[in-house]
Q: What sequence folds into this?
């Protein structure tokens, strides 16, 4: 697993790292982010995005800072403007088997493998490299430092939210369309009242206490 020391522009913007890496000869710089570490239910979803060099990178920001309508608009923009995108999903069953950190890293790896082309460098949100022999750099709070990571956060968030809306139709008593599986008071009360459903993470606090032993 490689590592490259980065020298951003004197006045860095959110495409400085990608620009610097391109100048060093890396053609396909992928940003990686995941969504869904904290929920009590549903999968963890990761995305990898390689932005077009001439795109308006400034419009891509941390998905948590913008409303759902804006995320949907940016998702469509990424699909239309030639960005290369891969998505990786790891189920709640595998989250329980692996633990949430390892499941998140596996989702990121799946996202890279799902790309239409293999990136030659990865910018990874967080402080844990993914288990792949591709040069990479971890970035804590990477969504605010890399437009590619921010774009990946948008893709992952939209995909996961759509999945949770579908699960809401199966399990309306938990109101997944509203809480997305996160541990809101309403959601925790629903688990207490109805017990966990098939997509709840059985190893997580606020779920495992209500699993009926057979």
A:
């Amino acid at each position: 697993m490689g590592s490259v020391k980065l020298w951003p522009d004197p006045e860095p913007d959110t495409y400085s790292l990608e620009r610097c890496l391109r100048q060093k000869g890396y053609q396909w710089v992928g940003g990686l982010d995941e969504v869904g570490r904290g929920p009590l239910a549903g999968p963890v979803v990761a995305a990898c995005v390689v932005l077009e060099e001439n795109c308006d990178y400034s419009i891509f920001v941390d998905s948590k800072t913008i409303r759902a309508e804006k995320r949907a608009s940016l998702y469509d923009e990424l699909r239309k403007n030639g960005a290369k995108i891969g998505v990786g999903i790891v189920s709640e069953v595998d989250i329980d088997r692996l633990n949430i950190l390892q499941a998140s890293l596996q989702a990121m790896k799946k996202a890279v493998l799902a790309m239409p082309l293999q990136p030659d460098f990865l910018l990874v949100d967080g402080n844990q490299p993914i288990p792949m022999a591709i040069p990479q750099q971890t970035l804590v709070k990477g969504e605010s430092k890399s437009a590619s990571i921010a774009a990946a956060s948008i893709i992952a968030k939209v995909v996961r939210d759509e999945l949770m809306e579908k699960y809401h139709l199966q399990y309306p008593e938990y109101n997944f369309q509203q809480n997305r599986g996160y541990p809101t008071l309403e959601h925790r009360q629903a688990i207490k009242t109805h017990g966990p459903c098939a997509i709840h993470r059985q190893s997580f606090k606020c779920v495992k206490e209500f699993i009926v032993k057979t």
Remarks:
- The domain at 16-171 is CATH 3.30.420.10 (Nucleotidyltransferase; domain 5).
- The first strand starts at residue 29 and ends at 35.
- The mean pLDDT is 93.
- The chain has seven helices and five strands.
